[in-house]
Amino acid sequence: MLFGAHVSVSKGYVHALEYALSVGCECLQLFAKSPRQWRGPAIDVDAAAEFVDARRDVVFGPVYTHTAYLINLATDDAALRERSTEALADELVRGAAFHADGVVTHLGNDPGGDTAAAARRAGRAIAAAFENAGAAGHDTRLLLENTAGAGRTFGGSFEQLSAVIDAADLAPERLGVCLDTCHGFAHGLALDRPEGWVRALDELENAIGLDRLALVHANDCLFERGSRRDRHAWIGDGFIGEAGFEAMICEPRLEGVSAVTEMPGQAPEKDAVNIARLRSLRERCDAGAGQSAVARTTTPL
């Protein structure tokens, strides 16, 4: 498992990559435009190409972009959904320009409470966004992020995400999921213990398929399991705790899945410290696996 952080692009995309390397990132997530605006300036093709070249030069890991927070694909407001579809298509085009390995999005809200209808609306909007993105859509993978389940937010359960994927009718290489640990824990998943991770991944595999899981947002949770409160905490400082993240890293079914942190606090400390904590847990997990292998080879039959 590779670790990274969501990094600022305020000083430019190449600087974002340089910053990511300086704090120990092996992968990263960024915004391809302002997350609080519907529209952004046209893509700076030269800046995007410079970023792609710089990433290739340092042999960096996966890069993900995150869509604007305004996007609401599940809404029953037809005008808002159409605007969200257009915005998502733009995000797919931007992701393609940066050769992103995935574009992460939230699904929005379900004001009517009819989850089946909300899933159909979101799925159809996603399919339309890919169509509107044109050729760029063929080179980009969209990742649906789970929510903490507060209020009318849609997409908290694997079943809801699965229903959206079914409605969109897109292959795994086009449409996948991003598992946010804080959101999952706040929604009720017992991600603070190894057996909880086993059960969560069993549920995800049965509902969605592990081939669609591409990214983990590795965030501790400030509140107790099932609180439905989305408040991120530093790794080991929340209710998921160090043991929960060690279990995540040691879970063999997550091998090859990247993880990025989205932490409150001041840069660069918030990123350097949390990535260092994850890497330390990975070393502990690797050492434990090695000890287990030795035990298996030295234990009499």
Strands, helices and their partners?
Elements: E1 3-6, H1 13-22, E2 27-31, H2 45-57, E3 63-66, H3 78-97, E4 102-105, H4 115-133, E5 142-145, H5 158-168, E6 175-180, H6 181-187, H7 194-207, E7 213-217, E8 220-221, E9 232-233, H8 241-250, E10 258-261, H9 269-298
Parallel strand pairs: 1-2, 1-10, 2-3, 3-4, 4-5, 5-6, 6-7, 7-10
Antiparallel strand pairs: 8-9
3D structure, described in words:
- 45% of the residues lie in helices and 13% in strands.
- It has helices spanning 13-22, 45-57, 78-97, 115-133, 158-168, 181-187, 194-207, 241-250, 269-298; strands spanning 3-6, 27-31, 63-66, 102-105, 142-145, 175-180, 213-217, 220-221, 232-233, 258-261.
- The chain has an eight-stranded parallel barrel, surrounded by four helices. It has a two-stranded antiparallel ribbon with strand order 8-9.
- The longest helix is centred in the C-terminal third of the chain and has 30 residues, at 269-298.
In short:
The chain contains nine helices and ten strands. It has helices at residues 13-22, 45-57, 78-97, 115-133, 158-168, 181-187, 194-207, 241-250, 269-298; strands at residues 3-6, 27-31, 63-66, 102-105, 142-145, 175-180, 213-217, 220-221, 232-233, 258-261. The strands form two sheets. Strands 1-2-3-4-5-6-7-10 form an eight-stranded parallel β-barrel, surrounded by four helices.
